[in-house]
């Protein structure tokens, strides 16, 4: 299966740079997380990759063919986003039919099963659905469409905890049955930590991280203890974020720690999760 290659992609709105010279690959059969604060440029990036917006500079290739306005290449890509692409009077079943018309081999059996599990009426008009049910209808379409690269922009918008859990389970199930690539852009980072294999963290127009989640987390630490000892122990590290409570200081780092350095008894070093690492890497370093 082909690899998507994004080469020196820049996007400006007027004089405002949104994406600055991004080069990266999206490989087959992998689940990615695209993370970034509000306004970082995640939707813009996904829209450009999916030919719904155009880059100021740069190119996107599926192996050796350009994706821009290339029907065959675009047939392998599907974007589920907040923006509705459907006529107002569409029913849920029309979404499935359109996905079948556009991509072929829509998995209707799975879609019927999922509408039942999520409690969505296939005959319902989209305009009558709540925010959460609209998201569910779009998600079911995305999970059942016949595409090799599926991009989910805010896939859990308006979903309650039970439905989010059901979605994560169904995503894993269909991924195991028919591996393909999923890219999830979401703010619910803790919830996708165990789902995604690789993350891109978009900050200040560029990827500040483009790596496997396990590698990132293997080097993501909270180091705490008496302030003076923490300062001494971390003097050669890049502190991304810190908190002090009474005399106890906690600092956050995302980098390998030297194995040769003696850890004082009063210093505690713990691994942190993806949400905490993300906050340290983005918001933390600004404070
Ligand atoms: N058509 C447009 N014209 C001008 N500016 C735009 C346009 N679309 C997006 N922007 C700006 O580009 C920036 C990135 O927006 P984008 O929606 O891609 O961010 P995001 O990371 O998806 O944000 P969020 O997490 O809040 O959804 C924002 O500052 C936004 O205001």
From TrEMBL:
SMART domains, per the entry: AAA (SM00382)
Keyword Iron recorded: no
Residue stretches making up the ABC transporter domain: 4-229
Molecular function, one GO term: ATP binding
Source organism, top-level taxon: Bacteria
Keywords: ATP-binding, Nucleotide-binding
Pfam families according to UniProt: ABC_tran (PF00005)
SUPFAM superfamilies for the chain: P-loop containing nucleoside triphosphate hydrolases
InterPro entries: AAA+_ATPase, ABC_transporter-like_ATP-bd, P-loop_NTPase
PANTHER family named among the record's database cross-references: ABC TRANSPORTER, ATP-BINDING PROTEIN, SKFA PEPTIDE EXPORT ATP-BINDING PROTEIN SKFE
Protein name, per record: ABC transporter ATP-binding protein
Organism taxonomic ancestry: Bacteria, Bacillati, Bacillota, Bacilli, Lactobacillales
């Amino acid at each position: 299966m082909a690899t998507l290659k994004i080469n020196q992609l820049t996007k400006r709105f007027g004089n405002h740079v949104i994406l600055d010279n991004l080069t990266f690959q999206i490989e087959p059969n992998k689940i990615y997380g695209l993370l970034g604060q509000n306004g970082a440029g995640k939707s813009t990036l996904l829209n450009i990759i999916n030919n719904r917006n155009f880059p100021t500079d740069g190119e996107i290739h599926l192996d050796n063919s350009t994706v821009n306005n290339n029907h065959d290449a675009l047939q392998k890509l599907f974007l589920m986003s907040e923006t509705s692409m459907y006529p107002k009077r569409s029913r849920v079943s029309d979404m499935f039919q359109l996905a079948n018309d556009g991509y072929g081999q829509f998995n209707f059996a799975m879609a019927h099963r999922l509408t039942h599990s999520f409690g969505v009426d296939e005959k319902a008009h989209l305009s009558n659905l709540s925010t959460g049910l609209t998201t569910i209808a779009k998600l079911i379409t995305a999970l059942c469409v016949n595409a090799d690269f599926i991009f989910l922009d805010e896939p859990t918008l308006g979903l309650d905890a039970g439905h989010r859990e059901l979605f994560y389970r169904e995503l894993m199930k269909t991924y195991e049955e028919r591996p393909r690539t999923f890219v999830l852009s979401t703010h619910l980072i803790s919830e996708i930590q165990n789902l995604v294999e690789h993350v891109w963290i978009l900050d200040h127009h560029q990827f500040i991280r483009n790596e496997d989640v396990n590698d990132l987390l293997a080097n993501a630490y909270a180091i705490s203890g008496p302030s003076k000892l923490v300062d001494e122990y971390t003097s050669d590290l890049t502190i991304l974020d810190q908190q002090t409570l009474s005399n106890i200081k906690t600092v956050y780092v995302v980098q390998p720690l030297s194995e040769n350095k003696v850890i004082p008894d009063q210093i505690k070093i713990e691994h942190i999760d993806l949400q905490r690492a993300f906050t340290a890497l983005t918001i933390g370093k600004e404070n």
